[in-house]
Design a protein that fits this description.
Helix content: 10-25%
Structural class: mainly beta
Strand order of the largest sheet: 1-2-3-8-7-4
Number of helices: 3
CATH architecture of the largest domain: 2-Layer Sandwich
Shape: elongated
Number of strands: 31
Length: 424
């Protein structure tokens, strides 16, 4: 139901008008010539010009998938067009009969296009088929309508040039579908089919958990707090719990800040599973991209093997819902503090290599926000990012000698575990 040669549409209109005039009792005695010429070239006696002067895309079929090709690129779908024609007539009579003859020809043309508003393979006029043989059998339908062009717009067509005003009519033919490319490949033939039931509900994650460990000043034993959603730094263990996870093959997918799609973490994260609980140890990268601090999402892709009614087996892959968790910036230790209150903090990740956008690192001590500066001597209340694993900080003036000062590092809204330094 498409064509590529637009001239076939024009030839069809010419044939419709020619055949309709030939059987009309009002036709003139002289031979009427119907052509596809523009108005300025319609100069012969008793001549009608049907000229295609403009085309536009039909919005209703724009970017629609062609039948049978739902997943093919758009070039394998037809282009829908509306064709715009201008029709005029000419008579060589020099006296007053000339305009009368032109008006007669225009009336015969308008009557022909009115009587046959839809042209298809079966349209016959005077016992003859009007559709070109080359497009028969493609189920093309040409819908013809007289456009109501405002008088000022019609007059401007002629006054823009050097030709005198002539009687004309404007028609639209819709929708003409331009034949698309044929796909060069197709899906494999289905040789057998069946409906098989799978027992058990779909797997689902219900929580993420991790353990935050810290030592409060003055206490000898560290404290451990389980948090959910999980807040794991690099090197910490993250646990996911769910339902219907089973014991088959599975892999962990994570989606980091700014990622459009989840990625598999790989074997380095050491995925371990037992029942409806899985755990991993957070590593410094995922497929080569750094594991930056912030809010992440985790899901599991599980393999399900079922026995078919035919006796064979079939493996399908099911992906669970996503469960949020946080990657926290780590503080693994502090260097020796100078008498000025300047010291280093190790951990990470505090920076990422280019071309990745730089991390926004925020540091506070004693609740006072430190100001980030370029590497160099620090003033009280300033800090600098030395590298991905090191911060250089200086206590604010609010710090009192001998006082334990809490240090907080926040990146992408995720905060490091509790840590304290002793003011000199």
């Amino acid at each position: 139901m498409a064509l590529l040669d637009l001239s076939l549409v024009t030839r069809t209109l010419v044939e419709v008008v020619k055949r309709a005039i030939a059987i009309s009792p009002a036709k003139p005695a002289q031979l009427v010539k119907v052509s596809s010429l523009p108005p300025d070239r319609v100069t012969e006696d008793n001549q009608i010009g049907i000229y295609l002067y403009h085309l536009v895309e039909e919005a209703a079929v724009k970017n629609q998938a062609w039948r049978g090709r739902p997943d093919s690129p758009i070039r394998f779908s037809p282009l829908g067009l509306n064709l715009h024609y201008i029709i005029t007539a000419h008579s060589d009579n020099a006296d007053n009969e000339g305009p009368y003859r032109e008006q007669l020809l225009m009336g015969l043309t308008a009557r022909a296009l009115h009587d046959y508003p839809i042209i298809d393979d079966d349209t016959r006029i005077g016992g003859l088929n009007v559709v070109p043989t080359s497009i028969k059998g493609d189920d093309n339908k040409l819908r013809i309508s007289l456009r109501h062009v405002p008088v000022a717009e019609a007059v401007s067509y002629w006054t823009a040039g050097s030709h005198p005003l002539r009687l004309c009519a404007y028609y639209e033919v819709s929708v003409v579908l331009l034949d698309p490319d044929e796909p060069v490949s197709a899906g494999a033939r289905v040789l057998s089919w069946g409906v098989d039931a799978m027992t058990g509900a779909l797997p689902r994650l219900v929580s993420s958990q991790s353990t935050v460990t810290f030592t409060i000043p003055g206490e000898s034993a560290p404290r451990a707090i389980d948090v959910s959603p999980g807040q794991a730094a690099i090197g910490d263990r993250l646990t996911l719990t769910g339902t219907g996870l089973g014991s088959g093959p599975m892999e962990l997918l994570v989606r980091g800040p700014g990622w459009s799609a989840p990625r598999a973490v790989g074997s380095a994260w050491g995925l371990g599973a037992g029942g409806d609980e899985v755990s991993v140890v957070v590593q410094a990268d995922v497929e080569g991209d750094p594991t930056v601090a912030g809010t992440w999402a985790a899901s599991l892709r599980l393999a399900r093997t079922t026995v078919l009614s035919t006796g064979g087996s079939h493996t399908t892959f099911v992906v669970t819902n996503e469960m949020p968790f946080q990657i926290a910036p780590a503080i693994t230790g502090f260097g020796v503090m100078a008498p000025t209150g300047q010291f280093t903090a190790t951990g990470g990740l505090f920076a990422v290599p280019l071309p990745a956008p730089p991390l926004v690192v925020r540091v506070s001590i004693l609740g006072v926000a430190l100001v980030e500066v370029a590497p160099g001597p620090l003033q009280p209340g300033e800090f600098t990012v030395v590298d991905a694993a090191t911060l250089e900080l200086r206590l604010p003036v609010e710090a009192v000698s001998g006082q334990w000062a809490p240090v907080r590092v926040v990146i992408n809204g995720s905060e490091s575990p509790p840590a304290w330094v002793l003011a000199p």
